[in-house]
Structure formats: C-alpha cells, structure tokens
Amino acid sequence: MTALANVVLPVSAFLLSLAGVRWMIASGVGLTGDVPNDRSLHQRIIPRGGGAALVASTLIAWLVASLLLFRGQVSSWFVVPIVAMAGLGWADDRLDLGIGLRLVVQVTASVLAALALIDGVSGGPAWQAMCFALIVLSLGWVTNLYNFMDGMDGLAASQAVIVLSVMAAWFAGAGGAGIALFSILLAASAAAFLVFNWHPARVFMGDSGSLPLGMAIAALSAGGVIDLGLPLAAFVILMGVFLFDATYTLLRRMARGERWWHSHRSHLYQRANALGYAQPVIVRWIIGIDIALAVLASTLVHDGISTGLACLMTLVILVAPLLWIARREFHSSATAREA
Known about the structure:
Blueprint: H1 2-27, E1 32-34, E2 46-48, H2 51-68, H3 79-95, H4 99-117, H5 125-149, H6 155-173, H7 177-197, H8 206-226, H9 232-238, H10 240-255, H11 268-274, H12 279-301, H13 307-338
Antiparallel strand pairs: 1-2
Helix pairs in contact: 1-2, 1-7, 2-7, 2-8, 3-4, 3-8, 4-5, 4-8, 5-8, 5-10, 6-7, 6-8, 6-12, 9-12, 12-13
C-alpha cells in the first residue's frame, strides 16, 4: 500500500496541478496580467499567479497522504509557513504590498518554522538562540532570493523540480518519510506548472508560487539538517545557482551604490540574455549546472567526498559562468566603442 501510494500520490499531484494551471489560464480566475516594462524579458502581457495552483495541488495531495499513510500523526510543521507565503504572494500579486508588510509576514512565518525546529538543536540556551536566529535569517533570505530569481521562463520551476526531487531522495534515505513525500509532491506539482511556464511561457507563477517554493525549500532543508543530520553544505551546494546569483548580484548592486531593493536586470541569467542568448538556452545551461551540483552534493551526503573539496568544486562551477559572462560583456563593450 505504501509503495503504491508513493507513486500514485505524486502522479495525482502532477495531474491536479496540470488541471489547475490549465483551468486558471482558460478562465483567468486568480490571475493578473504581468505588463512588460524595461526590466522584463517578455514582450507581451502574460498572466501571473499560476503558482497558486501548484501550491494548492501539493497541499491537497499532502492532506490525503497524511490521512491515509500517516493517519494524521506525521509532523506538518512546514505547512503553516508555506501557506503563509502563498497567501502573502497571492495578495502581493494583486495589491503590490509594501516591503514593510511583506517583511513582517515573512519574518513571522520564518519564526514559526524555527520554533518547530529548535527543539531538535542540542546545546545550551545561547547556542540554541544563535541557531534560532540563523534559521530565521536563512529562511527569510532563501524565500526572497527565490522570488528574485523568478524572472525567466522555466527557471524557478525547473529549479524546484531538480532541488526538491534530490532532497526527497536524501530524506527518504535518512528515514524522513514525511518530508520526503512532501518534497516529491511539491516537485511533481512544479513539474506540471513547468509545462505551461517553459518558453514561451503561457503563465507566470508570480509571488503566489515563488515565495512558498522558496520557503518550502529553505524549511525542508533546515529540517533535513536538524532532524535527520544531513550535512548543511549539501543543501547549500544543491541550491548553489540561485544562492550564488542572487547573493553576488545583491552585493554587486550594493557596492555600486544602486537601489538594490528595486527591480533590475543585472542577475547573471539576465546579463546572459542581454548578450543575445535565448531564454531556453540559458535555462538549459542552468539545468545542466543544477544536475552537476546535485551529483556533487549527493556525493557529499553519502560521504564520497570531503566538505572542503565539494565546496571548492562548487565555487569553480559557479564562478566559471560569471567570468565567461563578464568576458563576453567586455568584448561586446569594446566592439561597440570601436564602432
């Protein structure tokens, strides 16, 4: 029964998400128009907010799983923060909420997740307090960076499919049946959304999808480290593309004195697009890097490589595209000046 359910439930989540997104596109219910501007990569109005369907599909499948497989006894501490982010994203897609309100809701959701996890941290009060603060900061940062990186057709959805699928395998191997199943359900729902989000996208996930996906990946990763003893470095490596691009871009903008909280087109994937590379080409390259990092991180999880060497190899893999883009930009600028 359990083995069959582990197949049926992800397939059901995929089909439910597929039907939900298709219905939203056809009816327009729950969607708003994303109007192109000078910072957009799309040229026409695209409906935004389809991420609500993938989140809802996951939660429905998870409710069935928790009742049938775990008889309501499995821990679902991660659901409330994810639902909070989905609600925040849904409202922001429509009302363009201010940064203050967004921050309050995100911090509250991160605190709730941290409170559920902190009991699993051994050590004295001072150590637990420091870990609590780090969990809150990490969840908030990953949630926001996922939102920052959702700016190209298929990028955020494909990242979710790869990262969550790999995490599900790690969790299952470490004995975390509950979070393993939730991870694969969310991956399946994201895969269905990707069908409509691949270039040229018919729908964007919007904050309704990017915020809960970021929170889910961050919270589940924290649970894997604290409750299952998996290495933190493995999760950092697995999310390397998004972590590196968002962090590097933010620091670069701050160093230049730019208004870093404003929208822009200076992420590495956006800079590659500005050089003339099509969105599908860029996303395929990123998927290739994701797979390489997933193999490296999985090797670390199974003690096949040292943490230091794994981190060094990750840095080389991530810095190489940055140097390549910078070199192409330099030559392009030089050619323009000569002309």
